[in-house]
Amino acid sequence: MKKFLNLFFCLSILILTQSIALAGAIDKTISDSGINKDSVSISVKDISTGKTVYKLNDKKSSMPASTLKIVTLNASLDTLGKNYKFSTKLYKNTNNELFLVLSADPFLSSADLKYLIRTAKSKNIISPKNIYIDDYIFDNKEWGEGWQWDDDLSPLMPKFSSYNLDKNLLDVIISPTSKGAPANIYVTKFYPTTFMNLITTGDKNDIKLSRNNHISPDMVNAEGTVKEQTTVQIPINHPKRYFILRLEEAIRNEKMDYYGNFGQKKLPKSNVYLVAQVDHSINDAIEMILVDSNNFAAETVFKAAGAKFANNTGSLGHSLEMLDNYFSKLKLDASDIKIVDGSGVSKNNIVTADFMSEFLYKKASDKDFINSLPTSGQGTLENRMLYFKDNLRAKTGTLSDVSAIAGYITSRSGKTYAFDIMINDPKTKTTAKKSLEEYILRDIYTKY
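^ thats the sequence. predicted structure below, dont judge the formating
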């Protein structure tokens, strides 16, 4: 018995010594990077036991950036189901009235609207008495809480609403003329936007667009030079207006006899029949959110899940109720976190590294989820983490002062770990923060 206790004691000392040495390797990597250690939060958990094998500031609140999409998407899928479809439907009632029921489909296009109207005409619906739009799927909040006003022209942050169409982005064509002369600017689809054109034809493409929403939201200032024709996408500042313009075009194209307004009205529960519908699978949104980190899709799915959970109009409040319910099902303590959007864009989102790694640990048996995360060389990891090949599945996140990465890594020893790394350091370049993330993961991969 004494020999056994001595052996157990020696093994315990050996494991403790190894653990300290491994932790020391990560500590040294952070120290060598020159990044303030206090700005780095890390939590690494063994998915076979749930035990934390390394931690640094793991209970410190930080901004998750787009790694938050891991949490909000999983919660949304739990409510919506993996077979969920965004369905935009056109109905007719016995009073010769049409009802267009919106689903806030992030993939709905102008071509889809044309299909719906064309199908109606093929069924001899040519002179509807009224056309109503059922837009009650979402409330009228079109931007996230805490989103930065000066990002309103970023194509990565368009508004999201019941009237989602063409990803709520407008294609702007900028083409050169003769050197030194003003460039040509035009849009591919009519939308009432005025361009203050200060772009000249020059030796390079160096274009800057800006907008003063508090003065004139329909005016875009265009400055710089253009050498070769280029297409720039800008968010549509009024999605409903853009949607109505495209719907009117579809009606005119089919020569449907209707010149009235489009009222807002819920679909009646009786005396209606389905004329046509357009469906898009949520599976397409999963890839857009996790691989491409698309904020527009993430916000739409999150709010749609809130609508289904509450059996009511989608709102941030209903989405947060859905999220709390999901955390309860996972038996996950969310008392130290704050979530205010579905994409991680807002700087008001606050989580801890321990919370994120614990969430990933609880999801470690969901192979579909893990396989949907990008690996080295994919999506936002297209030119990153190539050292790990297929041993890494992770979601990245970037804000102005923050870089983050969360996911799973299988080390050389064959063990798989759930990890979260958040670096919140305004004094350090994004490239330096991302480099540190990779070297920390290399330590985990080679030494754990």
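Residues 7-12, 14-18 have pLDDT under 50 and may be disordered.
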